[in-house]
Amino acid sequence: MIHLFLYAWLAGQAGNSEAIQHLQAGLEARKQHQVELEIAEFRKATESDPNSAEAYVNLGSAYLEKRDYGAAIAPLKRALELSPDLPVAHQLIGYALLAQGYSAEAIPHLQRVGALDALGIAQLETNQLTEAVSTFTQALAQRPGDPDLLYYLGHASGLLSKDAIDNLLATHPDSARAHQALAENYYVLRQMPQAEKEYQEALRLRPELPGLHLELGQVYANSAQWPKAEAEFRAECKLRPGNAEAGYRLGAALLQQGKAQDALPELKRSNELKPEMPETLYSLGKAASLNGDSATAERAWLKVIELEKNTSLAAQAHFGLAGLYRKQGKSALAQHEMQEFQKLQSTIGPPRSE
Amino acid sequence: MHRRLTRRDFLNYAAMAAAAPIFEIKPLRGIDFLLQNSPTPRKFLIETMPGGVALFDYNNDGLLDIFMVNGGRITESLHVPENFERSNPRYWNRLYRQNRDGSFLDVTQAAGLASAGNGNYGMGVAVGDYDNDGNADLYVTSYGKNILYHNNGDGTFTDVTSKAGVAGGGWSVSAGFFDYDNDGRLDLFVTRYMEWDSDHNKICGGDWHTYCPPNAFPATTCLLYHNRGDGTFEDVTERSGLAAKKGRALGVAFADYDGDGFTDIFVSNDGMQQYLFHNNGDGTFTECALESGVAFTADGKGMSGMGTVFQDYDNDGRPDVLVTVLPREIYSLYHNEGGGNFNYASLEAGLGTMTSMSSGWGVGLEDFDNDGWKDLFVAQGHVLDNVQDIDASLRYRELPLLALNHKGRFERADSGVTEPLAARGVAFGDINNDGSIDAVISCLGGPPVLLLNRGGGTNHWLTILLQGTRSNRDGYGARVSVNGQTRVATSAGSYLCANDKRVHFGLGSAEKATVEILWPSGVKQILNDVRADQFLSVREPERS
């Protein structure tokens, strides 16, 4: 792309004839992939016409082609001295400087030409994390799904998050948020007793903080302390009655304890708050089935299948429906659902307990 | 100095007595057994799987004796063909005879049970009187060859494996005697875990270096031997249809779940679906776990099936199934709904909260408090000896689970065990003949643990010793109902173990009982006004 641009740009330029000859010879060498000859010719062009920005740009470009980024910088700098607005020179020197680790120096050049991917990397390397996240987001809007950009955006976001947490811990170590952050870290590391302790301290400091009860409940759920989990999820529901996840978690905790009757309204409420969540619908079906509410169970599980189609949750819904129909004496339907369950098992593998 | 007992003191003492655990740990006087599983850095999978316990009365003196299955010596240089050096006495299986004073005497050598075969690494044990001579015979499973010991009736046993044709091979685990064709002779079922040998062992867990999960090895079939009645057995695994289903079987339990008069087989498989082999009554079986609702959890998920028990927990007269599993699963309880259908009932029964962080092996549904409801006891301990390094919320050694049954819902109770165990097998029986069920637990690398039931409550009990005539002499497979409770007569179930074959019932406050026995022969026997608190011998009527 850059090469095409150079050809087009050069066609409109003229210097002394000797320089032009060398430039043309250099371009010919480039076509033949003879990079050393290309460098020699462009160097001669710069010697023949020391004021030819195009000769320096091409020499720099040739060095870039050779991956000799260090050697590319000087001719590109000279090109910009001669022609400060030359976009291609800004782009190439931005790349060269970045490749050599001079990220801060590269940034203005890359900004000038809008080379977003390289600019994002330069910002990442200079710890301008907020800017990097913004740049990668813009770049992804232009090239959605690009794996490199997705990686860099994730990486930058992670570092930004860590930065913020480090800052929080350094500046407000005794705050509820600091304890919450530590708790989350322990949770990820599966160090549940420490996570529990930090969450409890956070709650002591700010009992009304949204999300804390929910997260502490998950710590208890993870270690199968279901009554405690239930209490935390219930507290979160009280604090945030409009939060669908809290309702779902409470319903699931009640189900685990065999309290299907209590679980059913919670799961119904969660489903109303945020409809079409497959996990909620699956648990709702389970609670309804245990309560003998076959119609609700059937509706919920059919919806799961509609939403999920070929996932393990869909397989579970088919399995649940098979049991439901079997109990109702609907043998043909039960058999059909069991076949669908088995079909999914053979394609996605048998579901295992967590 | 004596002080007068005040009312307050009395209430305090009463409260303390009420809170006292059902069991107390009693030293097994005369028992010096250590279960030699021989763990190595090579993490051979067999190391973490033994060992069996049998509670049976081998000399018919009315006292339960104890047989312990040992593992064997494993070295890091182990290769096929493996030699586990069972000739050293520390690796022997052991038979301990109970003395009148409750102590035990090691009679292994005198009984002719010292040799376990150097190529065999011991696993489990089954007990049954396969030749109907009135003496309990022993079948010992192994990785390697299994051994059938015939009880000679004079305190000695003879290895009759070769003549009987029941050596099996591969990796056998739990086994049980039952009479699948109701011909009055006990047949033999043997679970096998997987296709494994020391040359094909694998180590998993990356840097953690752990035992591999079961799906790292190919599945295999169980074995069914038909008793010909002449001291020999025929391998009918293929002919019966059982060979069509490969699994990773660890536990087995028997019951006639659909009341068609033929004993069915439930097999707990590790890391996959469970199997229910319906007895077709013509010598063949049909695997129907999926159709019957006992293959998976309520969520259609496979499970790490380990031990199993097939008894009626809710006193509706139909045998239910319970399977012990690994953590982050829930012990699976399948309620028998009748008509050949089961319903996953773990959550309603209260097992969701109680069991989701535990690793269960041996299991029993026994009425420990004699209140008329079968309680749950599970021997627990994780498979991986370094699990705590991998997941800080789990433990290699665990306390056993005792859960009392309150009209079909289980609630955790204090088992009396205070030190966590690497428990595997557990066998149940009334060791001191006091009318309360006791337990013996096998523990990897350690001595067995005897949990002696304190008993002493006001509840009554009845224990029945069956003697079949047209049916098999042990009466295995008989459906015994007492005051609305039902038990299937069997010594099988749990994991690797054989329970006291006597059929025990708690009677609550009832001082009399009505006993109904449906023998495998089809004979129905009713005994009215049976006095409570006795060991009752019942002989099957010769003619109906």
Q: Major sheet of chain B, described briefly?
A: 5 strands, antiparallel
Number of strands of chain A: 0
Q: Assign an overall shape of chain A.
A: elongated
Largest interface: A-B, 32 and 35 residues
How far do the termini of chain B sit from each other?
67 Å
Order of helices and strands of chain A: HHHHHHHHHHHHHHHHHHHH
Number of E-type strands of chain B? 38
Mean pLDDT of chain A: 92
Estimate the helix proportion of chain B, in percent: under 10%
Helix content of chain A: over 70%
Taking all Cα atoms into account, the compactness measure Rg of chain B is: 22 Å
Spans where pLDDT lies below 50 across 5 or more residues of chain B = 11-17
- Structural classification of chain A: mainly alpha
Q: Which stretches of chain A of 5+ consecutive residues score pLDDT under 50?
A: none
| Biggest beta sheet attributes of chain A | none
Instruction: Give the DSSP E fraction of chain B (strand runs of 2 or more residues).
Output: 35-45%
By DSSP (H or I, 4+ residues per run), the number of helices of chain A equals 20
Beta-strand content of chain A: under 5%
* Oligomer designation: heterodimer
Rounded average pLDDT of chain B: 94
Outline:
The complex is a heterodimer of chains A (354) and B (544). Chain A has 354 residues and is mainly α.
Task: Explain how this protein is built.
The complex is a heterodimer of chains A (354) and B (544). Chain A has 354 residues and is an all-alpha fold. Chain A is built from 20 helices and no strands. In chain A, helix 4 (53-65) packs parallel to helix 6 (87-99). Chain A is elongated and about 95 Å long. Chain B is mainly beta. In chain B, the strands form 10 sheets. In chain B, strands 16, 17, 18, 19 and 20 form a 5-stranded antiparallel beta sheet that branches. Chain B has a 4-stranded antiparallel beta sheet with strand order 1-31-30-29, with no helix packed on it. In chain B, strand 17 (264-272) and strand 18 (275-279) form a beta hairpin. The longest helix of chain B is centred in the N-terminal third of the chain and has 13 residues, at 7-19. Mean pLDDT of chain B is 94; it is low at 11-17. The chains are: A mainly alpha (354), B mainly beta (544). The interface between A and B is medium-sized, with 32 and 35 residues.
